[in-house]
Amino acid sequence: MSSSSAFNDDKGGSSSIGEPEYGHDPASGGIFSSDYKRHDDLKEMLDSNKDSLKLEAMKRIVAMIARGKNASDLFPAVVKNVACKNIEVKKLVYVYLVRYAEEQQDLALLSISTFQRGLKDPNQLIRASALRVLSSIRVTIIVPIMMLAIREAASDMSPYVRKTAAHAIPKLYSLDPDQKDQLIEVIEKLLADKTTLVAGSVVMAFEEVCPERIDLIHKNYRKLCNLLIDVEEWGQVVIINMLTRYARTQFLNPNANESLLEEGTEKAFYGSDEDEGKEEKVEAAALVAKRKPYVMDPDHRLLLRNTKPLLQSRNAAVVMAVAQLYFHLAPKAEVGVIAKALVRLMRSHSEVQYVVLQNVATMSIKRRGMFEPYLKSFYIRSTDPTQIKVLKLEVLTNLANETNISTILREFQTYIKSMDKDFVAATIQAIGRCATSIGEVRDTCLNGLVQLLSNRDELVVAESVVVIKKLLQMQPERHSDIIKHMAKLTDNIQVPMARASILWLIGEYCEHIPKIAPDVLRKMAKSFTNEEDIVKLQVLNLAAKLYLTNSKQTKLLTQYVLNLAKYDQNYDIRDRARFIRQLIVPTDKSGALSKYAKKLFLALKPAPVLESPFKDRDHFQLGSLSHLLNAKAGGYQELPDWPEVAPDPSVRNVEVPEWTKCSSREKRKEKKVEKPFYSDSEGESGPTESADSDSDTGSGTGSGSEESGSESGSEESEGESESDKEEEEEKHKRKSKSRAKKSTQESEGSEPSSEDERKKPPKGKGPKAASDSESEEEEEEEESSSESSESESEGESESDTDTRMKQKTCASKPPPRQPKKETEMSLLDLDDFEPTPSPQVTPVNNFVSSSLVTDLEGLSLSDSALSPAAVSPASGPVKSYELLHRITGEGLSVSYCFSRQPFSHDPHMVSVQMQFTNNGDTEARNLRIQEPKLQSGMRIAEFPEIDVLPPGETVTMVMGIDFSDSTQAANFQLCTHTRKFFLTIQPPVGELMMPVFMTENEFKKEQGQLTGMNEITEKLTLGETCQGDAAIVQRVTSTASLSRVPCGSEMECRFAGKTVTSGSLVLVTIVTREQLVAQLTVNCEKMLIGTMLVKDILQALSQ
Amino acid sequence: MIHSLFLINSAGDIFLEKHWKSVISRSVCDYFFEAQEKASTPENVPPVISTPHHYLINIYRDKIFFVSVIQTEVPPLFVIEFLHRVAEMFQDYFGECSEASIKDNVVIVYELLEEMLDNGFPLATESNILKELIKPPTVLRSVVNTITGSTNVGETLPTGQLSTVPWRRTGVKYTNNEAYFDVVEEIDAIIDKSGTTVIAEIQGVIDACVKLSGMPDLTLSFVNPRLMDDLSFHPCVRFKRWEAERVLSFIPPDGNFRLVSYHVNAQNLVAIPVYVKQNISFFESGFSGRLDITVEPKQTMGKTVEGVVVTVHMPKVVLSANLTPTQGTYNYDPVTKVLAWDIGKLNQQKPPNLKGSLSLQSGAPKPEENPSLNIDLKIQQLAISGLKVNRLDMFGEKYKPFKGVKYLTKAGKFQVRT
Fold first, then answer.
1. Bridge-partner residues for A98, per DSSP?
2. Which of 399-418 (B) contact A at CB < 8 A?
3. What is the DSSP code (8-state) at residue B11?
4. DSSP 8-state class, residue B134
């Protein structure tokens, strides 16, 4: 209250501060002496030990600051109170401190220790506020302290403190840019944060500190996209703007070859597009010829899909951000969705309207069709502010075309009568533009404008003259009467620009009005001295032109005018006069130029193009300040052009997060807190979302339905999980995980074209090889074996080698359970041969290739010690994974595969067969494994050290890893004599088990014991290529190391296995119902394994 | 992002300044004053002004200019939207956003601004969080505070910022649990001289006043939700539910808030509730003019049209008006040249009429344009689009709340061209 009285007293604007302020204040009445020294009273109050007095003083000080008065001399008195118990006093002291610390650096240091103590407080809110104030104090000396505080806060348990840390980063950066590198480290760390609270703030810090480090975004891209809807609105704006730039560098232009799309089957979808420059189409077609058909990167799609709901935000800035994202990134057919939202924004405050209209004006030039349905929303009301009116007019003009021009012109007609003259002038300009762009209405417009020439308002007339001049230039011969009419206007019109325009027009077309033109010149010569400069120049111009065409009548007049101009005050006019005289009046001295005078003056001038001022503004990112100003603002980041070739999309792949990670209760609780709100977990939302993705890629089907499967699974797991909370949390985590997985899959599917291409050669080889002689085949085999480790997608040939290798190893170490498998062998005969070609081989090729495989099998078997057990029961196509690329490995490449053989030294280990190839020129020595970093329970049995690997050689080694029944990765170092490589092996869930032979009865009995929460059932639709028993068996066995269990029913397939470490049974049943519908049941003691297996099998079967 | 904020009254005094980064001298506002001088009306001041070293982004609201200083690239709407939030927050705290109320509560204003932005980036803009941090002033509290010396700053640190529902306070308790919803629709229209509709559309909002204890989860369903074409939601509304089932499901903020705003599907013809017959003409001779306006009800769906006001911005040459209304009162302000005719309720049988002469400035040419009429009106208990709330369900809490829905139709930007 007292602060208000202080205010009123001071209203007079007197610069003397404070004197009468406290006199009226009842609270402070008796305490002070009558000493009028500046602020002494306040100091005294601050020094007192009553909180109420301190508060009173602080309030007054803050009121002074608010008014912009200097209160810096109180600094010592105020800073003492930084540790005050009263929370309001404390807050106000903070306000003061932040305001004046920069000026009083030394004294400010007194307060630092308080904040440092605050940083250690157990209450997260106090830690956050201490960091906030500490980082706001702009004192260079504490930069190291700030850096340390930020680093610590970045790994704080509380997301709120981490958010504050993100906020502090740009503060420190502006204080000391040298800290950039260290700050980037912190940003990188915070970018990986999975909470919505942090996301917005850290991206903001990223934008301010290191917007050029786009590489930091890769790994977090998908996470940001998925979190976006739950981030607070201001963060959304920043993230969307950043992602727009990111997408421009990483994805291909979706509109680059739209003409191709339009011609093709998509016509139905894309047909609605109209206006698109023909040249552009031609250009695009040319490009298309070179380019492959465009397939949108699933990540690109993800961004578009996840931002779309935000068009419904109440925050205009968010809507605008999404709109610009769609404008810059979406395929043409999809951009339309933003129009409605933008039109909605125009209902908002006039400032919002102003900004939105600026952007709509730019957009409507490029994508007119988008706003056409909303034409009427841009109609102008007489109560609109002028700047809004002019912008609306701009949009209306941009939207004008043959069909709507009549309505637009009718609207314009009402506008011309407006009282707002600036607006009328703009309307006339707009009519001129419509007339030039739409030929049909040119005459109508011209007539209308000519009528305006008789308007009483001079401004209107002048503007009309200028516009008419431009229009006439297009077809002058048809309008000599208008030119005559305008000639008459010179008597009345005073606006210089209009007079100049008329004179130019008469001069230019003097042959159309031979009688009037000299007369006009006569009049102008009379008033020459009183004219404005631009008019004088045009008079000279007119005189020169008339002299050239009609020298008989105008010779003297021209001389006269030139003489007048010769002594004009303005040197431009004197110059011009001299120049013209030399050029047109023939003298002895005049050079060659005068011969060409006529050509110079009466050359045909190109008609002017009336263009929108908003043309080409779209090279600025829409919605930005720079776009609005049409000038680059400081700190503006250019919107990059689309790349010609998309950079590697796999950079965005993220390792699948683990369930067992972050097991501490604290973290779990936090996660629960951020349960997303929009995409809430109320059951139906999950499937809806995945349904979306299905339509895009098709590969998502399996994982989509799997998602709900895992949910139901976890619901059943109540017995295991401790509480409901935890269960929910797990569900959530699982969901996010499956989402992450899905996206990985999507990205894999994103390059089918390239993959197909790569696959073609082996496919083609198949049939050919079959007809060829065996020896040739063998040669080829060898060839491929030497280079097999180079890429994973070698497919056929490689997996062959693998099988062979494996058989070799197996031969020497016969598996323990041989007899069982023998019986199984006969049952699985078919499977053995069928699966060997890569799964993508079409059924037509199947026959040929499988026979080829038989041949190969024979071949390879013949050179190993033939043993029936050597053919592993589940020898599906063994996928090989790259462990070390030859480029990163400096010539050394390593690939591995799960050979599905029991590891001889330890039955609880999964055997991993590693293939080392030396592609370099020098030999690699002492290859060995070091320092495995393993999750608890995991073990590694290393392979014996390889002494020497000569260039070009390949060596295969087997090592065992006990993954302890989890899909967590095993990390270790591979050492050569020169270098160390950090490597990671992550097993697919199917490799964590080994086949078990069972009879039908045993199977049923075991299954009976594993019901309830240990049973997961899923419906699925079989993929096109996955029909029939054989195909199913092949798919399943290739996905998981299981063996088939004999079964009476034709419609049923059963598989059994057990996990390698704990030996828990894994039972899989697939019942085919109709043509393509099937039901999958997995019974497993280990729930996690079960759910993950369901997912993998589903995916394999639905492809 | 936002560097500093200056509040400037219509007289051009800077009465508050706040800096979030280093201090920027208030002389930067001179550029603003320059632009203000150029603009004819406050509405015409360009929202973005470029100066050699800074950019000024300003809004004009409640006769106060909020001028923010920007140094680097930032989406202008971001700043504009934020400034409006600030103004709304003042409104929320002090009941009005005026120079006097801001000056009276300068300390609270300062504390608010401090919390809303951190280093120029928005930190807490949800009213519920802010109210936990800084309690709004009430008469009682200010009396108590002066006596006891206690403060407006919350003793407990707010937890709202950390929760999943940042817009809701925790531990809300009411003795009367009530939830009221106002469906307010505005008709935006331009009517031609001849009485034909050039453009007419309906914009609606649903404002809520929810005072419920605990953490209620509400579901609001409509009889005809498809009417709502283009919506924007309060962040509390679950978007997926709306997409899938067309119901509004949300955990409400405490107190007053705007739940959704919507646009009624453009295909639906808009019923124009009134018909205006007008004839305004000016004569060259005698420097006079004639005015004759009749307002008739039309398509009111059996409801009474109330609060009808016709406003006319006369051309500058109109000096005075001598008119007779059959109903209501009229007033002509010769300074602003605004003629306002306050009619009140519309009578079905006897349509109100305003008739008489206008006198013009002698010697001046007669105005070319006839001024357009702006109509204001209200219809209680009617949503002109026909939108109807079906039911409101509450989950999550045991008590039974009072529920209520009110409908109101208003004229938005309703203009009749003459």
1. none
2. 413, 415, 417
3. T
4. B
Return d(Cα A802, Cα A856) in angstroms, integer: 12
Interior angle at CA A481, CA A476 and CA A482, nearest 5:
70
Give the distance from residue B75's alpha carbon to the nearest chain A alpha carbon, in angstroms: 4
Instruction: Select the residue from B7, B13, B27, B119 to test the A interface by mutation, using most A Cβ atoms within 10 A.
Output: B119
The whole-angstrom separation of Cα A196 and Cα A916 is 44
* Contact status, residue A639 vs residue A621, Cβ threshold 8 Å: yes
Taking an 8 Å cut-off on Cβ atoms, the answer to whether B103 and A95 are in contact is no
Query: How confident is the model over B100-116, as a mean pLDDT?
Result: 89
Q: Which residues of B fall within a CB distance of 8 Å from A457?
A: 368
CB B181 within 8 A of CB B259: yes
Q: Is A877 helix (H, G, I), strand (E, B) or coil?
A: coil
Chain A residue with minimal CA distance to B102?
Answer: A4
Q: Is B151 on the interface with A (CB under 8 A)?
A: yes
- CA angle A347-A348-A351, nearest 5°? 125
**Is the CB of B72 less than 8 angstroms away from the CB of A635?**
yes
Rounded-to-integer distance, Cα B332 and Cα A44, Å: 58
CA distances from B171 to A340, B132, B160 (A): 39, 11, 11
pLDDT tens readout for residues B16-61: 999 988 888 889 999 999 999 988 888 889 999 999 889 999 999 9
What pLDDT was estimated at residue B55? Answer: 92
Which backbone phi and psi does B102 adopt, to 5 degrees? -70, -40
CA dihedral sign, ordered A42, A47, A53, A55: positive
Strand partners, B339: B312, B332
Query: How many residues belong to chain B?
Result: 418
Which stretches of A954-1064 are assigned E, i.e. beta strand? 954-962, 970-975, 980-985, 993-995, 1015-1021, 1043-1045, 1052-1059
Alpha-carbon distance of B62 to B46, in angstroms, equals: 17
Asked if B157 has any chain A CB less than 8 Å from its own CB, the reply is yes
Distance CA A274, CA B26 (A): 52
Mutate to test the interface with B, among A318, A625, A636 (most CBs of B within 10 A): A625
Residue B104 sits at the chain A interface (C-beta within 8 Å): yes
Q: Which helix (H) or strand (E) holds B129?
A: helix B127-133
Helices and strands of chain A, counted as H and E runs: 47, 15
CA distances to A145, A862, A1023, B160 from A874, in Å: 61, 20, 22, 56
Interface contact B22, partner A, CB < 8 A? yes
- Smallest Cβ–Cβ distance between B368 and the set A87, A351, A417 belongs to A417
Interface residue of A677, A679, A685 to substitute, partner B, most B CBs within 10 Å: A677
pTM for this prediction:
0.66
The Cα–Cα gap between A357 and A346 comes to 8
Contacts of B74 in chain A (CB under 8 A): 625
Take residue A251 and report the two structure tokens written for it.
């994805």
Tens digits of residue pLDDT in A363-409: 988 888 889 888 888 999 888 899 999 999 999 999 998 888 888 98
ipTM for the whole complex: 0.92
**Rounded CA separation A654/A744 (Å):** 8
Nearest to B20 by CA among B60, B55, B69: B69
Q: Do B106 and A351 touch (CB under 8 A)?
A: no
Inspect the interface and report whether the beta carbons of B240 and A312 lie closer than 8 Å: no
Query: Does B23 lie at the interface with A, CB-CB under 8 angstroms?
Result: yes
Among A564, A508, A556, CA closest to A536: A564
The partner residue sitting opposite A688, judged by closest CB among B44, B111, B240, is B240
Beta bridge partner(s), residue B275: B296
**Crossing angle between the packed helical segments A316-329 and A233-250, to the nearest 10 degrees:** 10
Token representation of residue A1076: 């393509």
Output phi, psi for A480, to 5 deg: -65, -30
